[in-house]
């Protein structure tokens, strides 16, 4: 970079020097590839005009042209998550579907308190944030059974009753036309 009259250029002087250097570089490029030099000059002119007109564009352009290691983080770093629990050793919903409440209680009673807490955590059964603090395994088992039964029954009002088979299509229409039983 050239300096003006032996002294350091101020802000506008520095800009003048940089503009002159860009002009000289475009002139040198124009000697070997005039079409590319003209295109580049038009692009730079449009970008500079838009940046002068729109401060939002100028900021976005400055951000895009700043090296990524010099850019500040756009949002604070996320704090590390707390210790996550291990996955539950059994799927309480599958056990409940196979063996019912009694089978589920039996399977859960064979597990330790931490294993029960893993199940509660894995399946989001601690809605009030108390169950993972309980020290009584029986209480945690009650929570698991209650939540499994509740979630399994959810939506049952919209399901057909299994003990009543759905009517066949020909029976749903009512008595047949040739039926004289009335």
Task: Characterise this structure.
The protein is 56% helix and 0% strand. It is mostly helical. The chain is rod-shaped and about 90 Å long.
Q: Can you summarize this structure?
A:
The protein has about 180 residues and is an all-alpha fold. The chain is built from seven helices and no strands.
Topology of this structure?
Elements (H helix, E strand, L loop, with lengths): L10 H22 L1 H20 L1 H11 L26 H18 L3 H10 L14 H17 L15 H4 L10
* Ends distance: 109 Å
Structural class: mainly alpha
- Mean of pLDDT: 80
Helix coverage percent: 55-70%
Number of strands: 0
Radius of gyration (Å): 38 Å
Q: Provide a count of the helices.
A: 7
Summarize the biggest pleated sheet: none
Low-pLDDT segments: 1-9
Shape: rod-shaped
Report the sheet-strand fraction.
under 5%
What is the string of helix and strand elements?
Answer: HHHHHHH
């Amino acid at each position: 970079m050239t300096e003006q009259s032996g002294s350091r250029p101020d802000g506008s002087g520095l800009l003048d020097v940089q503009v002159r250097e860009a002009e000289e570089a475009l002139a040198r490029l124009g000697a070997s590839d005039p079409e590319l030099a003209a295109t580049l000059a038009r692009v730079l002119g449009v970008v500079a005009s838009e940046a002068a007109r729109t401060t939002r564009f100028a900021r976005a352009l400055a951000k895009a042209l700043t090296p990524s290691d010099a850019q500040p983080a756009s949002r604070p770093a996320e704090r590390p998550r707390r210790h996550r629990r291990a996955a539950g050793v059994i799927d309480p919903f599958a056990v409940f579907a196979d063996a019912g409440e009694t089978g589920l209680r039996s399977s859960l009673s064979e597990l330790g308190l931490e294993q029960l807490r893993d199940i509660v955590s894995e399946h989001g059964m601690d809605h009030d944030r108390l169950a993972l603090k309980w020290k009584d395994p029986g209480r945690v088992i009650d929570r698991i059974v209650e939540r499994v039964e509740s979630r399994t029954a959810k939506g049952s009002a919209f399901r057909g009753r299994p003990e009543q088979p759905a009517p066949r299509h020909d029976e749903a229409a009512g008595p047949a036309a040739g039926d004289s039983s009335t």
